[in-house]
Amino acid sequence: MLTDLPNVLTLLRIAAIPVLVALLALHSALGNVAACVVYTAACITDYLDGALARRWQMLSELGRMMDPIADKLLVGALLLALAGLTVLPVFSLYAAIIIMLREILVSGLREYMASQRETLPSTRLAKWKTGIQMVAIGFLIGGDKAAAALHLSFLPATLIGGILLWISVIPTVLSGWGYLTIGFSRMMASDPRKSSKIVS
């Protein structure tokens, strides 16, 4: 049900998005620090909703659908906000574009698979992708302003975030290719006419 605690945590992660964008729009060290706090809480809910659902036997199709959607909304909205604020270093705007294209492609594939009554379960590589992206975005949200406000001026937070975003492109592309391979193989298996054409 929507009111189950794991699903409520997922909804809170979505609700945090406009708050994070508003804090980033302040262009201040205090706003960046506050954004880091809210973002960290949102990331914690990403772990808790799944852990609690498994522990309390609250697994549901609604939860399985909402969890990856919440992750994609959070990552996508923040990447767009950071790009708009021009705080993406080391050409990591292009990394963000690759990430967004992959997410749209996989989401479209999942939608098609669902229409064919097929599922496309998340892989361990995709979880690593999400984890690295979230850490990278955390550094980018805080940036050098938050580092200075926390007396960590020696830490090049923005640069670290940009490098980590590029590193996340590797599992992003690999997991996306894996999903495409699985999706197309299942589509061919479910349509014997297409399979026979390929074989011939």
TrEMBL record:
<dbReference type="InterPro" id="IPR004570">
    <property type="entry name" value="Phosphatidylglycerol_P_synth"/>
</dbReference>
<comment type="similarity">
    <text>Belongs to the CDP-alcohol phosphatidyltransferase class-I family.</text>
</comment>
<keyword id="KW-0808">Transferase</keyword>
<keyword id="KW-0443">Lipid metabolism</keyword>
<comment type="pathway">
    <text>Lipid metabolism.</text>
</comment>
<dbReference type="InterPro" id="IPR043130">
    <property type="entry name" value="CDP-OH_PTrfase_TM_dom"/>
</dbReference>
<feature type="transmembrane region" description="Helical">
    <location>
        <begin position="163"/>
        <end position="184"/>
    </location>
</feature>
<feature type="transmembrane region" description="Helical">
    <location>
        <begin position="73"/>
        <end position="101"/>
    </location>
</feature>
<keyword id="KW-0812">Transmembrane</keyword>
<keyword id="KW-0472">Membrane</keyword>
<keyword id="KW-0594">Phospholipid biosynthesis</keyword>
<keyword id="KW-1133">Transmembrane helix</keyword>
<feature type="transmembrane region" description="Helical">
    <location>
        <begin position="6"/>
        <end position="26"/>
    </location>
</feature>
<dbReference type="InterPro" id="IPR048254">
    <property type="entry name" value="CDP_ALCOHOL_P_TRANSF_CS"/>
</dbReference>
<keyword id="KW-1208">Phospholipid metabolism</keyword>
<dbReference type="InterPro" id="IPR000462">
    <property type="entry name" value="CDP-OH_P_trans"/>
</dbReference>
<dbReference type="Pfam" id="PF01066">
    <property type="entry name" value="CDP-OH_P_transf"/>
</dbReference>
<comment type="pathway">
    <text>Phospholipid metabolism; phosphatidylglycerol biosynthesis; phosphatidylglycerol from CDP-diacylglycerol: step 1/2.</text>
</comment>
<keyword id="KW-0444">Lipid biosynthesis</keyword>
<dbReference type="InterPro" id="IPR050324">
    <property type="entry name" value="CDP-alcohol_PTase-I"/>
</dbReference>
<protein>
    <recommendedName>
        <fullName>CDP-diacylglycerol--glycerol-3-phosphate 3-phosphatidyltransferase</fullName>
        <ecNumber>2.7.8.5</ecNumber>
    </recommendedName>
</protein>
